[in-house]
TrEMBL record:
Domain of life: Eukaryota
Molecular functions per Gene Ontology: iron ion binding
Coiled coil: none
Beta-carotene isomerase D27-like C-terminal domain span: 147-228
Source organism of this protein record: Hibiscus trionum
Protein name according to UniProt: Beta-carotene isomerase D27-like C-terminal domain-containing protein
Length: 263
């Protein structure tokens, strides 16, 4: 979050007509706003796109290097395209969905100093019934993860105690899902491991609700996920554009691909 600078006018200075005009047209933002300025968001046609910067490149390379260690090899594709290829390999080379999720959780853990996660869970997570921690991670997610997911913003979500707070993150159109084109990659390398990571290692419940029609996704920090048998996202069919499903159709003409093989 960017620091706010307070400018104090001279005590006896009288405002000029020009300064009055500026004050009338100035727009003030609330203190708890997104750290991402409008300059980082670009509109292409009807689609919002996040423009990456130096810090985003650092996050991408760090995440990709951790994927390489888990997969055992690196993609020849540069940048984000290579990251998506590695994510698909992480899922397809795993013995089971559970194995994929555990590997993804290890990757997320390795991105943080161990003491930081432990201190957050012990000292921050209990404050205010968990609301403070939930609000904090929502803002950090927007600040650090738009290179991965695309344009997103903090929003208000309903909590189990009947109240609501700004501990949600709404992803306009998830780049990770759009580029992978795979329900299984979304669920097993993102949704399930991310939910487990925040709950188990940061003490913050999280449910993620991806929309496989418009590729949006709603994060709800402070809300526990449903049981697997009650989670509709785990019952989603393969996307029509899924390259993994299409490959299976070619290999096995009679295979049922209505349900994603890795979901």
């Amino acid at each position: 979050m960017k620091p706010l600078a307070l400018g104090l006018p001279a005590p006896m200075a009288a405002p000029t007509p020009h300064s009055k005009s500026l004050l009338q047209h100035r727009r003030f933002s609330p203190a708890f706003c997104s750290s991402v300025s409008s300059e980082t968001i670009e509109i292409k046609g009807s689609k919002l796109e996040y423009k990456t910067g130096i810090l985003d490149d650092f996050f991408l390379n760090s995440f990709r290097n951790k994927l390489v260690k888990e997969v055992g090899w690196d993609s020849e594709k540069p940048g984000y395209d290579g990251l998506i290829e590695l994510a698909k390999a992480l899922m397809m080379n795993s013995r089971s969905n559970s194995h994929t999720k555990d590997a993804a959780v290890r990757i997320l853990k390795s991105l943080f100093p161990p003491f930081l996660l432990e201190l957050y869970k012990i000292l921050i997570a209990p404050i205010g019934g968990g609301k403070v921690a939930a609000i904090m991670v929502a803002r950090v997610t927007v600040f650090t993860c738009q290179w991965l997911m695309g344009v997103c913003k903090v929003n208000s979500v309903d909590l189990p105690d009947g109240t609501s707070c700004n501990s949600g993150v709404f992803v306009e159109r998830c780049k990770y899902l759009e580029e992978s084109k795979c329900v299984g990659v979304c669920i097993n390398t993102c949704k399930l491991p991310t939910q487990s990571f925040f709950q188990d290692y940061m003490g913050v419940p999280l449910v993620m609700e991806p929309n496989f029609i418009d590729y949006s996704c709603q994060f709800k920090f402070g809300v526990s996920p449903p049981l697997p048998e009650n989670d509709d996202t785990l019952k989603q069919p393969c996307l029509d554009v899924c390259p993994i499903a299409n490959k299976r159709r070619d290999i096995q003409k009679n295979v049922d691909v209505m349900k994603c093989p890795k979901a």
